[in-house]
């Protein structure tokens, strides 16, 4: 996913394949210099397991804040209720008109 000054097209949307019931490790990286990144996954909770390559006591959350130049590792278990769900990244600052966008999707049988 990447931030840009316009809404991303379908071709620019990152697709991450997942399997219902399986747990996936996502490393969230904020490559920005001066902007915080808020990340949530529609309809799912995340378990934070590391921050900046340092293991942390796992905790469950619905939103992760990643500071500039930082990383956060989260575990996500895809539920079977939906075939795909959006990675939501609301802009932390008014100057960011179009937040990055992505989807986690289960493959069709």
TrEMBL record:
Low complexity composition bias: residue spans: 90-99
Source organism, top-level taxon: Eukaryota
Entry's Gene Ontology molecular function annotations: oxidoreductase activity
Classification via PANTHER family: LACCASE, MULTI-COPPER OXIDASE
Lineage, uppermost ranks: Eukaryota, Viridiplantae, Streptophyta, Embryophyta, Tracheophyta
Designated name of the protein: Plastocyanin-like domain-containing protein
Any Pfam family: Cu-oxidase
Domain Plastocyanin-like: start-end pairs: 9-90
Ranges of Basic and acidic residues composition bias in the record: 100-109
InterPro entries assigned: Cu-oxidase_2nd, Cu-oxidase_fam
Region (Disordered): 90-109
């Amino acid at each position: 996913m990447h931030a840009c000054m316009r809404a991303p097209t379908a071709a620019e949307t990152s697709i991450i394949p997942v399997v219902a019931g399986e747990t996936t490790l996502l490393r969230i990286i904020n490559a920005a210099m001066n902007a915080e990144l808020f990340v949530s996954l529609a309809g799912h909770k995340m378990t934070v397991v590391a921050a900046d390559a340092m293991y942390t006591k796992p905790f469950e959350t619905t939103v992760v804040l990643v500071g500039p130049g930082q990383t956060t590792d989260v575990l996500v278990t895809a539920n079977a209720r939906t075939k795909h769900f959006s990675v939501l990244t609301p802009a932390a600052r008014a100057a960011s008109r179009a937040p990055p966008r992505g989807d986690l999707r289960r493959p069709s049988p």
